[in-house]
Specification:
CATH superfamily of the largest domain: Vaccinia Virus protein VP39
CATH class of the largest domain: Alpha Beta
Distance between the termini: 51 Å
Number of helices: 9
Strand order of the largest sheet: 6-2-1-7-8-10-9
CATH architecture of the largest domain: 3-Layer(aba) Sandwich
Radius of gyration: 19 Å
Helix content: 40-55%
Strand content: 15-25%
CATH topology of the largest domain: Rossmann fold
Order of helices and strands: HHHHHEHEHEHEEEEHEEE
Oligomer: single chain
């Protein structure tokens, strides 16, 4: 199979933008290329031109294409030390000045992080006082997040993470088993609104005490990261918290001087300038 060229990637981004109004022009090139290659292999498509034809003519295929391009590998309580910092420092700090907490999970993928947050808040006794908005670009992955159904074999890793997080119960308390599927307790997400939202082109739609966007921006180039971080800044109340992924950084971006570093290890920042 021929090597995918940069021109091919640009052509794909252009077709997707013109036909479906999704903008991938500022995605990190290497990551986008890897995913295109995976789609060609997965669907046994011989070349980029054949892929372009299929994207243009088959909107059902485009939905599948979108899932593959935007898929995030995720797990519950990923990076347990981060979740401990959230429980021991960040949430208590927000609660000092607020009766209610507003949280935005941006790029929530299949929802493991949203359920982790709900479990953490429940164990702290503040879940009822929290409003969470969980957004993603991909309709199908949002449906999965909303359903709270995960493969039982994935729960092994989630369980290990929860133990390392030092939760005060056991993760089995929060789901029931049905035919090899772990079905999360729906009461955990009663205060969660799952919404379709495009980080690239979407508007700022609310104000929050805490915005989490972990391991999403590694797929964006610097221009796009910069734009998205500006949106996050605008979406936060003054002294609200922004949390990004362990391999991501705010240092170089335009709004870096409007945040202070709260925890460099866990990439926790606090907005202190509008």
């Amino acid at each position: 199979m021929a090597e995918i060229e940069i021109a091919d990637i640009k052509k794909i981004a252009e077709v997707v933008k013109n036909k479906y109004n999704y903008d991938f022009t500022n995605y990190a090139m290497s990551s986008f290329k890897r995913r295109i290659q995976r789609i060609l292999d997965l669907y046994k498509i011989n070349n980029v031109n054949a892929l372009l034809k299929r994207i243009s003519e088959d909107s059902a295929f485009f939905e599948e294409f979108l899932v593959e391009i935007t898929v995030n590998v995720t797990e519950m309580f990923r990076d347990p030390s981060f979740w401990r910092v959230l429980r021991d420092d960040i949430i208590p700090s927000i609660m000092l000045n607020h009766d209610k907490i507003r949280i935005w999970h941006a790029g929530c993928s299949s929802g493991e992080e949203v359920f982790s947050m709900a479990i953490l808040l429940k164990e702290m006794g503040v879940l009822e006082n929290t409003q969470i908005i969980a957004t993603d670009l991909d309709k199908e992955i949002l449906k999965k997040a909303k359903s709270g159904k995960y493969s039982l074999k994935n729960m092994e890793l989630n369980k290990k993470n929860y133990v390392r997080f030092q939760g005060n119960s056991s993760i089995e308390e929060y789901y029931t088993e049905q035919k090899g599927i772990a079905v999360m307790n729906p009461s955990l997400v009663e205060n969660v609104s799952f919404r379709e939202h495009d980080l690239v082109q979407g508007e700022v739609f609310n104000k929050f005490d805490l915005v989490l966007c972990r391991n999403v921006m590694i797929y964006f180039n610097q221009t796009l990261q910069n734009n998205v971080l500006k949106k996050f800044h605008e979406s936060l109340f003054k002294f609200g918290y922004l949390i990004i992924g362990s391999k991501e950084s705010l240092i170089w971006c335009d709004i870096a001087n409007k945040f202070i570093v709260v925890n460099n290890e866990e990439k926790v920042y606090k907005k202190y300038k509008d």
